[in-house]
Design goal:
This protein is an alpha+beta fold. It contains 8 helices and 5 strands. Strands 1-2-3 form a 3-stranded antiparallel beta sheet. A two-stranded antiparallel sheet has the order 4-5. This is RDD family protein.
């Protein structure tokens, strides 16, 4: 595009006066969504571990005698499986864990699962569901709030993924990216500023849609 279009300005004028969501609905929606992500990760980890056990069984290898599963305070699921064999030691680790000699284990499987845990699943959840939900994830739907773009009438797939990645940017700032809710005049956190979005109440969004679909007819002269 070689010429600037003022359509964004028109959309901003239509957004004028829309009610922004409060802190607690946004916080509760965020917690609800991460609880769902945790359940999804647990399901994936369980399915992966069951598949690994099945492969070992088909290969005729013995089932490990000791299995320990724990959930870290950060919400990451890590599973450590150890087996002492008479001839050789055996160790299997999923996620952050310790090797038999007490050192951190960072094999290819662990690194791949960390990428899935830290990036792939959150981006798919917060990005795809926000896009398909037209600005609402399950948590936001329960709390009656919605994400809206201040540049476009509809959230695109890229803007939704960009906002999902913005959660990581907010966390990397030591949580300050979330604190910006109280500092920004329009209650925008780091992910909102990155994706050019605002979070509004569902009631005000529906009022806006009704106003746009039923424009006032000027009085005839």
């Amino acid at each position: 595009m070689r010429r600037f279009s003022a359509k964004e300005t028109e959309w901003l004028l239509e957004l004028d006066g829309i009610e922004l969501a409060n802190f607690w609905p946004r916080a509760f929606a965020f917690v609800i969504d991460w609880m769902i992500v945790g359940i999804l990760l647990s399901t994936v980890a369980t399915a992966g571990f069951a598949t690994w056990l099945g492969i070992r069984h088909l290969q005729g290898k013995p089932t490990p005698d000791f299995m320990q599963m724990a959930t870290e305070s950060s919400g990451k699921l890590h599973t450590t499986v150890e087996k002492a064999d008479a001839k050789q030691g055996f160790h299997f680790n999923i996620g952050p864990g310790k090797s038999p000699n007490g050192e951190e284990a960072h094999g290819p499987l662990e690194q791949a699962l960390e990428v899935v845990n830290d990036i792939v699943v959150p981006v798919l959840y917060f990005g795809v569901l926000l896009w398909k939900g037209h600005g609402r994830t399950p948590g936001k739907r329960l709390m009656n709030i919605r994400v809206m773009s201040i540049a476009h009438r509809h959230l695109s797939f890229w803007h939704s993924v960009e906002r999902a990645l913005g959660y990581g940017a907010a966390a990397l700032e030591g949580g300050f990216g979330f604190v910006q809710f109280f500092l920004h005049p329009y209650r925008r956190c780091a992910q909102d500023r990155l994706a050019e979005t605002i979070v509004v109440t569902e009631r005000s969004y529906q009022d806006l849609q009704h106003r746009l679909s039923h424009p006032l007819i000027p009085d005839e002269k």
